[in-house]
Amino acid sequence: MTMLVSFFLSFLKRMAVVVPVMWAVVTLVFLLIHLVPGDPVVMYLGDSARPEDIQALRHKHGLDLPLWQQYVRLWLGAPAKDGLDKHRGLLRGDLGETFGGKNVVKELLNRYPTTLKLAGAAMLVAVIVAIPLGIAAAVARGHWLDTAISVVSLGALRCPTS
User: Fold this and answer.
1) Euclidean distance between CA atoms 101 and 87, whole angstroms
2) Which residues in 69-100 are b (16+ Cβ under 10 Å) and which e?
3) DSSP per residue over 17-73, as a string?
4) What span, in angstroms and rounded, lies between the C-alpha atoms of 104 and 61?
5) How far apart are CA 70 and CA 66, in angstroms?
6) 107 and 98 Cβ atoms separated by less than 8 Å
7) What is the DSSP letter of 158?
8) What is the pLDDT of residue 94?
9) What is the pTM of this model?
10) pLDDT in 10s for each residue of the chain, 162 residues
C-alpha cells in the first residue's frame, strides 16, 4: 500500500509542475501570436477581401475583442448567447474552429496517423544508422574512426531542424 501512496504522491508532484508550465507555454504562445505583424484574417482571406468579410470573420472568431477578453475566451470559451463561434475553451478540451469552419481537434486527429508514420520512419532510420555507428565507434575506441563518428554525430546534432 505504501508503494501505491508513494506513486500517487509522485504523480501529484509532477502535475503540480506540469500545470503551471502548460499555462506559461499557452500564455507565451498567445502573446507571441499577437506580437507578430500582420492580420491572420487578412492572410486567410487575401488582400483583395472586402472589409465587411474581414470584419465578419474577425467577429466570428472574437478577434475584434480586447486582448484580455480573447485570452479569457481561449481558456473558458465564448458565451453561447453572444453569437460568436461555439468553442468552449481549452479547459474543456475544445480547441475551437479553423477560419474555414473545421473543428481543430478533428483536423489534428485526421493528421495524427500520418504524423505517427513519419515519426516512426524517422526513428527507424535513426536506429538503423545509429546502432552500427555506435558499435563501430566502441570497437575502434581511440582510433580515427571513433573520432570521425563522434565528430559527424555531434555535427548532425547541431544542425537546425527547421
Assistant:
1) 11
2) eebebbeebbeeeeebbebbbbeeeebbbeee
3) HHHHHHHHHHHHHHHHHHHSSS-HHHHHH-TT--HHHHHHHHHHTTTTS-HHHHHHH
4) 13
5) 6
6) yes
7) H
8) 80
9) 0.63
10) 688 899 999 999 999 999 899 999 999 999 998 898 888 888 888 889 899 999 998 988 888 999 999 998 888 877 665 554 455 688 888 887 888 888 888 999 999 999 999 999 999 998 999 899 989 999 989 899 999 999 988 888 888 776
Handedness of CA 129, 131, 135, 140 (dihedral sign): positive
3-state secondary structure of 103: strand
- Report the C-alpha dihedral over residues 19, 25, 31, 34, rounded to 10 degrees: -120
Phi/psi at 97 (5° precision): -120, 155
